[in-house]
Specification:
It is built from 5 helices and 5 strands, in the order H-E-H-E-H-E-H-E-E-H. With about 140 residues, the chain is of the alpha/beta class. The protein has a 3-stranded parallel beta sheet, sandwiched between helices. Strands 1-2 form a two-stranded parallel ribbon.
């Protein structure tokens, strides 16, 4: 569901802003793999992660300094593993997500109905790159303490 995904161009801009970091792009299907390859080609600090099963993904995430992404399994897994994370919400409700000092979320301005998701809602793309970069920096500084 592309409406649930943060735009790849914005992820690229996040990576370009965080010049002191390198990133792995995880993927779960061929469409996500193509996006990961596109990102890798656009920024030398972005690398496509290998194909993984669920246990490999848990291990991979547990070794990350932070996991950033839209409302999907890997971002929630990072939270459950107590790995610093930032979840981006647009058309889906964040109310079931518990924030901690190192596990946070950003939500678009759209109003979300728990009973009926608006599948035409692309508001996740409205979350500003600068807001995400600032949140990542803050989470990483706290997690180092």
């Amino acid at each position: 569901m592309s409406q649930k995904n943060y735009p790849k161009e914005n992820f690229l801009n996040i990576a370009r802003e965080l010049t002191d970091r390198s990133f792995s792009v995880i993927w779960g299907n061929s469409g996500e793999f193509e996006i990961a390859r596109w990102l890798e080609q656009k920024c030398e600090r972005l690398r496509v992660a290998p194909k993984m099963n669920l246990n490999e993904l848990k291990k991979y995430l547990s070794q990350a300094s932070i996991v950033v992404g839209n409302d999907t399994g890997p971002t929630h897994m990072a939270w459950a593993l107590n790995v610093p994370s930032l979840i981006l919400f647009g058309m889906t409700p964040p109310e079931q997500t518990i924030e901690t000092t190192i596990n946070r979320f950003l939500k678009s301005s759209s109003l979300v109905s728990h009973r009926h998701l608006d599948k035409s809602d692309t508001s996740i793309g409205e979350i500003r790159v600068n807001d995400i970069v600032n949140e990542i920096r803050d989470i990483l500084n706290i997690s180092k303490v």
